[in-house]
Specification:
Length: about 230
């Protein structure tokens, strides 16, 4: 298959299949448009339990698979918020762990599994829930970036503290912890929440400049309350 990322503010990824039998899968409702010559099937990819796990990670219970019936067929998957689309060659990565909701689509050879955070505090306070997503296998996968992407390569023992909503993904070698903000004044008046994500190298970390949850909270302030 061949792919092309189009657009800038609200980008989409277009996939052109080279041969019949090639396929892409996405969460339910992720497809934007497609030509004739593509067959869609919907199922709980990997089984019901994996589907339920994906729900906790912010994805849909059922995944939609789109298989080419002829060469040259084209399909597009669009981002849901303003930002970027990041292509990942999963076979070249060392077990990339992603935040919930980052997955857009992938080839059939890519496995999307849920993974539990190692520390209870990370799940309770990290803003990511108890589960994250892990990509494995081989093939291309595409992640959604909210806003612009920033990539950091952490040296062994190097620490990066990030607002959790700004974390997109990190290598398997990167440790993931939650650190409480110090100082009562910072907690009550700092405006950054009680906890930060602590990432410890070595390994690659992918960040995003927009925190969608924070942005949604600001928008919510302007929505009229129907009870008033």
């Amino acid at each position: 298959m061949k792919y092309q990322i189009i657009g800038s503010t609200m980008p989409a990824i277009t996939i052109t299949f080279d041969a019949a039998g090639e396929a892409m899968y996405t969460q339910s409702g992720g497809m934007a448009w497609m030509t004739e010559g593509i067959e869609m099937s919907t199922n709980a990819k990997g089984g019901l339990m994996k589907g339920i796990g994906r729900m906790f990670a912010g994805e849909s219970l059922f995944m939609a698979t789109y298989q080419a019936k002829q060469a040259g067929a084209e399909i597009a998957f669009a981002s849901t918020v303003a930002g970027q689309i990041l292509p990942i060659n999963v076979g070249e990565e060392n077990g990339l762990t992603c935040q919930k909701g980052a997955f857009l689509c992938a080839e059939e050879g890519v496995n999307l599994d849920v993974t539990f955070t190692k520390k209870l505090s990370s799940g309770v306070f990290g803003g990511e829930g108890f589960v994250l997503e892990k990509l494995s296998g081989s093939g291309m996968a595409f992640l959604e970036i909210d806003g612009d992407m920033v990539e950091r390569q952490l040296a062994p023992g190097e620490v990066l503290k990030v607002d959790t909503g700004n974390v997109v993904a990190f290598d398997a070698g990167v440790q993931y912890e939650i650190e409480m903000v110090k100082g009562l004044g910072n907690i009550f008046f700092g405006g950054e929440g009680l906890f930060l994500t602590k990432l410890i190298g070595p390994g690659k970390v992918i960040l995003q400049t927009q925190n969608l949850a924070e942005f949604a909270g600001r928008i919510a302030r302007f929505i009229p309350n129907s009870s008033n």
